[in-house]
Write a structure and sequence with these properties.
The protein has 13 helices and 7 strands. A hairpin with a 4-residue loop joins β6 and β7. The longest helix is centred in the C-terminal third of the chain and has 18 residues, at 223-240. It folds into 3 domains: 3-114, Conserved hypothetical protein from pyrococcus furiosus pfu- 392566-001, ParB domain (Alpha-Beta Complex), CATH 3.90.1530; 157-217, no CATH class; 223-275, no CATH class. α2 (40-53) packs across α3. It is of the alpha/beta class. The protein has a 5-stranded mixed sheet. A two-stranded antiparallel sheet has the order 6-7.
Length: 277
Amino acid sequence: MGLGRGLDALLGEEPAQGATGIALRDIEPNPRQPRTYFDDAALAELAESIRQNGVITPITVRKTGQTYQIIAGERRWRASRLAGLDEIPAVVLDVDEQTAYVLALVENLQREDLNPIEEAEGYERLMEELSLTQEGVAERVGRSRPAVANALRLLAMPETLRDLVVDGTLSSGHARALLPISDVERMYKAAQTVIERELSVRDTERLVKRLREEQEEKPAPVRGDAIYIEDLQRTLSQATGRKVTIHHGKKRGKMTIEYYGNEDLDVLCTAIRKLKH
């Protein structure tokens, strides 16, 4: 049985079992379902389509005692319940729990029905369930090894950023670009900047590079230095009438004075010249 080729391969090898109508109440979702996020609006649209056209593609299940457990097609099953159907066409497979789980993983990954985090978790589970390398997983699901490796990198993200990827607020490319930021709070703030400014992945990489350089320039916090810098910022702000920001690094520093337009710059220059006397 070629698990790596998904359900199509399995059904091709066992064509004797056709689709049959099974009562929705007798079908249960798989608690180990790889897909954990179901969009309510998309489900409602599918339910309306099912009301009009019925379920075109049967779901796949396995017998578990007096009921059936879904292998593939939970979204169609959920939408059929919303549509008010009593039964759904299903193909029943005679497979054990682990085989059903692997088939569900492979099917979801091959159909690209998962969000980036679910996809990454799917690869990780395949590696654990079948003791596969990244190369082995890539062969099973028809992906390149770099694609699998890049997906798995997302699992290093904190939960707050994973949620942004799951709901589509942050793309997987942007998320990977943020990974070099070691501090979780700084990473989340950077993600908010990316979202608010609608930065490209390349611009996000530049932002991360700048943030890391600023972090490396920061010395170990010394309370005396911090108080001195704060006082100096306050003094210069009062003297110039502008916001002054000082970044004090180990080897070098940077001072920023804000101004607004050419006339304001002239006024600022005059104020600075007065400071010399």
